Amino acid sequence: MATRPASWHALHKGLHWLVVLLLVMVWGAVELHEFYEKSDPMREWWKMLHFSLGLTTLVIILIRLYGRALYPRPAPIGAAWQHQLSRLVHGLLYGVLLAMPLSGFAMRQFAGKTIEIFGVFNVHQLAAVNTDLAKQIAFIHKEVLWTTLLTLIAIHVAGALWHHFIDRDATLKRMLPGKHND
Questions:
Q1: What pTM value is reported for the model?
Q2: Which residues pair with 115 in a beta bridge?
């Protein structure tokens, strides 16, 4: 049986922190568009940036999932219940991180709205316009998935801090940049 590494592979670490950065940027872009009137082109620019960063996050999450298949994860630290909770939270996080951009994409498609990516190209209309379905997906995207994502992030961060400050183990250090083998 192959031995497990002491720390996460650099690919995992880099993509983990890239997703954190992208999520802050996606959130910031959607919040900043609210500062502009509906007729202001800057409002549309911030929305375009939100969609573009959301789809970028989707691609990074898919690469991260592929990377998990390539590189073994370090052995879990802590009690069995912590391992189970960690697997559940991580699985749900991945699910929501995939569902958020996909639902945003579907919402725009069914609303018949253009999806412009970084001002470079537009995604063609792939679905028939269905505004009722677009509204239902919008509710799921903005209310259900967003609230779920924030809750899961809070649990994830709380778990990392618990390991670091209460259990005083290397769980958090293993995901920080650099080598942490303690």
A1: 0.93
A2: 123
